[in-house]
Amino acid sequence: MKKNLAFVVLAGLLLTGCGGATQAAEPTTVATPVADTEALVELPDVVGLTLDKATDQLEKLKFKVKATDVNDDKTIVKKSNWQVVSQDPERRTKPAEGSTVNLGVKHLTDETATPTPTPTPTAAPAVQAEVVTPAAPPVVVAPPVVEAPPVVEAPPAAPPVVEAPPAVVAPPVVVAPPAAAYYKNCDAVRAAGAAPIHSSQPGYGKHLDKDGDGWGCDK
After folding, report:
1. Which entry of 72, 83, 199, 201 is 20 to 30 Å from 58 by CA?
2. What's the half-sphere exposure (Cβ side, CA atoms, 13 Å) at 1?
């Protein structure tokens, strides 16, 4: 055992002497791992969200969150009362895992708060006497007017039909035929005013019509 150890020490001394002076060791370059950008998480857009929801969303992606009041630099107590108005880095970028995302926030009451107006001193109102208005008399509702049915007039009675008495037909007047006239001669005819006398007239006779032309006592 001792012989082997002495041999190793001797061999080392020989090598040191043969090599001369000890040379400086060359610097070793340590490779720095380069982050794979494709494996990084894209930063979401949290502008418009309340601070509590934005914080939950970013912390789930392994980002750190820092919020600052952009208006009055107030201390943030309840995150649900604050709204995100800006973010750095911007959305859709791919910062390294564990990076801090700076959020600008404002209190939800900043836009709706209105200054309290200063009350204007007013004179005390005069005490007015209470006017008692008499109660109005009850309104009597008249019963509905029942309209009588229209009077239907009966048509006028037709006058009785008066039958005309039967016409009394007068018996025909029987004209007695004239008495047969007879004229003895033309002097009698002329005296009766019947000259000249025709054969169709009563009293005509052939003894009065000597020429037989049907007219007697014509000459």
Report:
1. 72
2. 0
